[in-house]
Design brief:
It is a single chain. By secondary structure, this protein is of the alpha+beta class. It has one domain (1-78). Helix content is 26%, strand content 26%. It contains 5 helices and 4 strands; from the N terminus they run αββααββαα. The protein has helices at residues 6-9, 32-39, 46-53, 96-99, 104-107, and strands spanning 10-17, 22-29, 61-65, 70-76. It has a 4-stranded antiparallel β-sheet with strand order 1-2-4-3. A hairpin with a 4-residue loop joins strand 3 and strand 4. Residues 6-101 form the DUF4387 domain. This is DUF4387 domain-containing protein. It comes from Kibdelosporangium lantanae.
């Protein structure tokens, strides 16, 4: 049986540039139960994002918005937008590791 991921519990998981130096990702959860998992600080926190995206945990910002069942995450881009080493100018693919994050341990 395949693992349940954040994407399975979300209406949408997306990423976008937030200016030339930041990436923002958003988890739009389907319901309160999915939001409870995504917003659980023991499951999804700055350290987890830092490991997924190889950034410093001190630079990660998480915003939990219960009235909308949304978790918003921002962190500095690894390289500035449009620079020679930028492989995703719109940051449109950065959400994939987050979307694939297994949630089994959060459901216990």
């Amino acid at each position: 049986m395949p693992e349940t991921t954040l994407a399975d519990l979300a209406h949408e998981v997306r990423s976008k540039n937030a200016g030339p130096f930041w990436v923002t990702m958003e988890l739009f959860m389907r319901d309160d139960d999915g939001y409870r998992i995504a917003a659980d600080e023991s499951f999804l926190n700055e350290r987890v994002i830092a490991e997924l995206y190889r950034v410093d945990a001190d630079t990660v910002q998480l915003f939990r918005i219960p009235s909308l069942n949304v978790v918003k995450i921002s962190f500095p881009r690894p390289v500035s937008q449009g620079s020679l080493r930028d492989r995703d100018i719109h940051a449109g693919q950065h959400h994939v590791p987050l979307a694939r994050l297994p949630v089994e341990r959060a459901c216990r």
